[in-house]
Design brief:
258 residues; Methyltransferase, Cobalt-precorrin-4 Transmethylase, Domain 2; 5-stranded parallel beta sheet; 5-stranded mixed beta sheet; 9 helices; binds S-adenosyl-L-homocysteine; Precorrin-4 C(11)-methyltransferase
Length: 258
């Protein structure tokens, strides 16, 4: 069947692609990948002989033409995206173009960079009684953000935030967050190039994180994480989860009554 596979490459580490994604890459004859974010070595390590296109210098018409032609020629074709394709991946318009051309496709998920950043920090993002909600968001850049999702509005919830595509505007991020439920003492972290060999982790509070990030010269491939969950490692946990509590019964285990 004629089809294109949209594959999540994961956050960087070549071992953080899914088994299915790796298999599809190995089998691929044609690969279009986002060279600005996906490591060329990752592509080459899985598919040394494939015909490879870097989408960084291509527009939607050009990437669609390559994907469609390869699929129509009966060649195995992968469109490789960084992290998970559904998060700021611009895949919807590519799928719409393939729909228009009557070409089928499948999406294979990947590990989004938020989870690589949490792993780098060794931090659970959902702690009982602290936050049970994670918001993935960004500041408006050239891509606008709907008005009701302004960071200052989102900040009213006070949940754990993972902010993509915004580290170059970190002062503005901090200013907007302080209009919500966060305070200058709220912990914040920036993880750059999560899971890459040159990964960088910067930790602080909303008071000092912007200065620390500028000082470290963090590039744009970085995430900002904010929220009281980040306090757990330095100040200890307030509440443990019930899941492994010895007195808590659930479908797989009887609690011990003392
Ligand atoms: N689809 C991707 C996100 C693409 S948008 C994903 O699921 O991760 C690009 C933004 O993602 C960057 O500006 C940065 O904020 C973030 N990003 C991607 N890879 C990253 C990494 N390895 N470490 C930190 N941030 C990363």
């Amino acid at each position: 069947m004629t089809q294109v596979f949209f594959v999540g490459a994961g956050p960087g580490d070549a071992e953080l692609i899914t088994v299915k994604g790796a298999r599809l890459l190995k089998e691929a004859e044609v690969i279009v990948y986002a060279g600005s974010l996906v490591d060329r070595e990752l592509v080459r390590s899985y598919a040394p002989d494939a015909e490879v296109y870097d989408s960084a210098g291509m527009n939607l018409e050009e990437t669609t033409r390559v994907l469609a032609q390869a699929a129509l020629d009966g060649r195995k074709v992968v469109r490789l995206h960084t992290g998970d394709p559904s998060i700021y991946g611009a895949i919807q318009e590519q799928m719409a173009e393939l729909d228009r051309l009557g070409i089928g496709y499948q999406v294979v998920p990947g590990v989004t960079s938020a989870f690589a950043a949490a792993a780098a920090l060794k931090q659970e993002l959902t702690l009982p009684e602290v936050s049970q909600t994670v918001v993935i968001t960004r500041l408006a850049g050239r891509t606008p953000v709907p008005d009701r999702e302004r960071l200052s509005e989102i900040a009213r919830i006070g949940a754990t935030l993972v902010i993509y595509l915004s580290v170059s505007m970190i002062e503005k991020v901090v200013a907007e967050l302080l209009q919500g439920a966060y305070t200058p003492a709220t912990p914040a972290a920036v993880v750059a190039k999560a899971s890459w060999p040159d990964e960088q982790v910067i930790e602080g509070t909303l008071q000092d994180i912007a200065g620390k990030v500028k000082e470290a010269g963090i590039g744009k491939q970085a995430l900002i994480l904010v929220g009281d969950v980040l306090r757990a490692r330095s100040e200890g946990m307030r509440a443990k989860s019930l899941l492994y509590d010895k007195g808590f019964s659930h479908g797989c285990r009887e609690g011990i009554v003392t």
